[in-house]
């Protein structure tokens, strides 16, 4: 058996040139988060609700899958509780296609990518997006990356969510990685890291359902991020990389300044699309609100000021081509479903920021 426990580490700070579109270039600190902790799963309290029989059965099945012996429990400064369990007891291996799946801790992906230095008037509800996306239908991708700023957001109702994230897709298969506020999953309004996948009829956040294999004790998903607000310095950001192993076809997630490998989705769980390469990548914001509710904020919660001290952004937009070479994202377009309340701008290439986009808004009020 393998089990993992490490103490928490600290955020790291580094300097790069800031980018102020209206006022020129300035110097200020940027901070990249190094995610840390152990191989673990979060428990959160939910509001009482009336559930159908099918929903109750699904909850019972999930509880059975998650009822694994805890080796150690840790409570963070934010009140989150994490249970450390044996490696092969994690929910990923409850997936029927992963019953005989093995992972060698001495092995990592066979190689990493080689680096190079709508308009409309929809109802004010449901899913909203403000994105920069790849637009060439003939291209295929082995992954991509970004450095995404994150913010503390309020006024997100229990049935809503708001994200800043990167997404890969081929057909119905989808991978998302980023940060967000999701009260229905966590029971609070804290900003956290998250992962999401859709493979055929199976889809879920983090490790709620089988599929994602955690391998690294240092970074973690579902981590509560520090409070940060627009207009204050330093600006905090998280580095994201998603890439496909050229030998196994597994989709890996790296986070943090050192691009620590968190884990992977085995290629065998996907229904067809992401068994192969991705055909589409986007970066930016996404919100959801049920019909009849006022939509939540996105990004920094402000309308765009074209100043990275105030606007949420994704910089260093990159794609990984079919030869596993990392490139600056090219031939991109923008998409915003509700242009009255959620805005997006593709700013192109700007020095240390690389290819950068800004997005966000307060939502309908």
TrEMBL record:
PROSITE patterns: NEPROSIN_PEP_CD (PS52045)
Protein name (database record): Neprosin PEP catalytic domain-containing protein
Pfam families xrefs: Neprosin, Neprosin_AP
Domain Neprosin PEP catalytic: 121-365
Gene3D superfamilies referenced in this protein's UniProt entry, alphabetically: Outer-capsid protein sigma 3, large lobe
Top-level lineage group: Eukaryota
